[in-house]
Amino acid sequence: MGSKVRKVVIVGVGYVGSTCAYSLINQAVCDEIMLVDRTPERAYAQALDLSHCMDFVHARTKITPGTFAQCGDADVVVLCVGIRPKNIQSRLEVLESAYEIHEPLVGQIMASGFAGILLVASNPVDIVTYAVWRLSGLPRSQVIGSGTSIDTSRLKTLLSYYLPVDPRSVSGYVLGEHGDSQFPVWSHVTIGGKPLLDILAQHPARFGHLKLDDIARQTKETGLEIYKVKGSTYYGIGNALAYIIRSVLNDDHKIIAVSAILDGEYGYADLCLGVPAIITRSGMREIVELNLSPFEQEQLAQSAAVIRQAIASLPLPPA
């Protein structure tokens, strides 16, 4: 009987990378996880520690340290490398160093014969995802970033507190940059299938205290709030990465807000933005184009301009 081992490589085993691996193990998403780090001893130690989970989970996942040369047979390679910004107000501050780290790294991955899905979690994720796409030479469908998946989850969680409902009963997306110019698409947020804007209009006594601008600001600033206290965010994004990987490996066709390379969608091309997309075994199968209000179109244009300006600063090779 033939079989295909589902293999995920995680590059960078700090907080985010190791939490992603932990989520994959607990959810039995794949058969094998390989950890790669610039400090091989740390990859070995993380693999050893994570291997001790196996007696307590319902499926065994083989987990080992490895090298870039061993990425060739992987289904997904997750990039979780980078440095922490000194100015915690902006993810864009670390762009130059992020590019310097990823340029040789992507070359080593591709030299292994890798032809799977590159999933980028490194910040600033939209710009790094674009750079990784250009450097890798892979089709745009095979290079995606975590994007606004975590911001969308934060939005749903906040709304679940205020309404109150289970966050899984909230549907909607945060679009644009995973950063300061992101925005919730209020015209498409629903609660149990009912538009949020209709709920607010019909029940002013119950929900008149809700200020959408305040919720949008809270959604944007939640990561900063966590960062100020504990120095990093990793549980939410680690689970978000596992969720995306599961949709790839299981060919789930889930619609997830990811950093995607646009080629005419929403009126933009040669640009990477956080947008909802159908995620399958082949990566990003299709971008879902929402009908945005005029104000939302303006917000997307502002976010696109921020990202395009940042991309222009990179010393990328000619397309």
UniProtKB/TrEMBL annotation:
It catalyses: (S)-lactate + NAD(+) = pyruvate + NADH + H(+). GO terms for molecular function: L-lactate dehydrogenase (NAD+) activity. NCBIfam families: L-LDH-NAD (TIGR01771), PRK00066.1 (NF000824). Homotetramer. Its main location: cytoplasm. Signal peptide: none annotated. The keyword Oxidoreductase applies. NAD(+) binds at residues 16, 37, 42, 121-123, 146. Belongs to the LDH/MDH superfamily. LDH family. Residues 148-312 form the Lactate/malate dehydrogenase C-terminal domain. Substrate binds at residues 91, 123-126, 151-154, 233. It is found in: Cytoplasm. The lineage of its organism: Bacteria, Bacillati, Bacillota, Bacilli, Bacillales. This is L-lactate dehydrogenase. Catalyzes the conversion of lactate to pyruvate. Pathway: Fermentation; pyruvate fermentation to lactate; (S)-lactate from pyruvate: step 1/1. Its EC number is 1.1.1.27. Residues 7-145 form the Lactate/malate dehydrogenase N-terminal domain.
